[in-house]
Amino acid sequence: MIRMLLPLIVFGGLLVLLVAGLQTAEERKLVQSPLVGKPVPEITLPGLHDPETTRSTADLHGHPYILNVWGSWCWACRVEHPYIDRLGREAGVPLVGFNWKDEREEALAWLDRFGDSWHFHLVDFEGRAAIDLGVYGAPETYLVDHRGVIQHKHIGPIDATVFEDLMRRVMQMRAEAES
Fold this sequence. Notes:
single chain, alpha/beta, Glutaredoxin, 2 domains, five-stranded mixed sheet, two-stranded antiparallel ribbon, 5 helices, 7 strands, 44% helix, globular
């Protein structure tokens, strides 16, 4: 009898651990990046639409901007895309796409299907530049001020609450850049 109940007991124990983990997940969602408060790494990568042209984070010094890590393989990137679209239209600062570990054709097809509100895209096919940036996974969103300093990093998909927080932070960065 005990041999038959043992798998059920183990399953129940794992279920309890899963529920406990999910309840505390919201608290762990705010992972502090060691790069917050430090200059964004100078990253030069090819563009997505024109791979012969390279773009760099240095091109944006002097202006606040949003850097969004995404991939066509990332289901959460699709979930957050309506908010990324809004950021591209409403934030008033450049929205830079950081296409990570993707295939160029698949990324372009994804943009054709869902829309492209980014100002331009850096492409990190092999994921090496993402290491310098401290990327944990996609999606991630960085707010970089006019001095090139990372002011905020959000890990995970943007939802309505995060969107409002990002917009507030972007407005603060814009005001600081103008003063």
